[in-house]
Amino acid sequence: MKKERILIIRLKSIGDVLHTLPAVNAVRQNYPDAQISFLVCKSIAPLISGFSAVDEIISIDRNALKHPGKTLPTLFSLLNRIRPGRFSHVIDLQGYGETAWITWFTGAPQRWGSVYRSMRKLAYTRGLDRDISSMHVIDWYLSMLRQCGLQINEPDNTFHLPENYTEQAAGLFREHGLDPEKPTLMIQPFTSRASKNWPLLKYLSVARFFKAHGIQVFFCGSAEDEIDLEPVRARGHTVITGKSLLVTAGLIKSSSLVLGGDTGILHFGLALDTRILMLFNRKTSEKISTIPYRHLDWVIDPAGFDSFPKISVNRVVEECRKTFPHVPSPKAIKTEPGTQPDRPN
Question: Which UniProt keywords apply (predicted)?
């Protein structure tokens, strides 16, 4: 029998790609001997190295496609790697127009797709209308595979972080005077949109409280966050920025709790078996798919409050104390004085 060759597509972004992990593992369970490839944007391709079920990573530089001198070479390289006849199955978990076209181009006998618009069904042998209004997107992917004939068992959401990234994270801990063996709170204060950010001064208040009670605290962010995190460094807190995606995953794995907003980085915690606490602005994050999978208890939203920024520091501290139960319950905590950094939407 000819070996199955399966292509799974999800181009972006960090959280959305992480949400495909149980589906990828389910495909492997159904096709234990298959060659499984994953098509993803180049910027987050390293993420797939933690998907143990994937044999080959195919990346596309979408920025190069916009560059006149790089468009054709980039496109021809991609088309060669997904050329007709190479794959027996293509599973499009994205459902964009471009991924529908890619799926059709492969000419695979079995082409399954999560479809936003009915016209795109023409690209698939089995196109299913995307339904995440009442279920998490992980459950939708598994439902889609089940409808396409696969047997679905208990979801496996395990991310296998390569050991060298855990070692690099431990080295960063030591470099910043932190002990990987001690209770640690990691704070990821910024997201992709200002409307999803809880006030930095309130994160600073949380950090001050736990640091005063012997918990190691550090703030994490991208290189672009460096300037906005200056008030954190000025108050004597550890700041680690600009690290690669998988080194950041190592920092998460080395932490006891990760606190932050609705951002893909926090979903690493769930896949790495690290407790997370997500501050969730329900008004701007309506999709249930952004909630940590099967962990509604790992979310704080503004229910009962006038607005998301008014979620109290005390409420957040009390939720964090579930990870650090030896820390005493706080009295009323005042928000750190200062000016909130002006971050554009």
Answer: Glycosyltransferase, Transferase
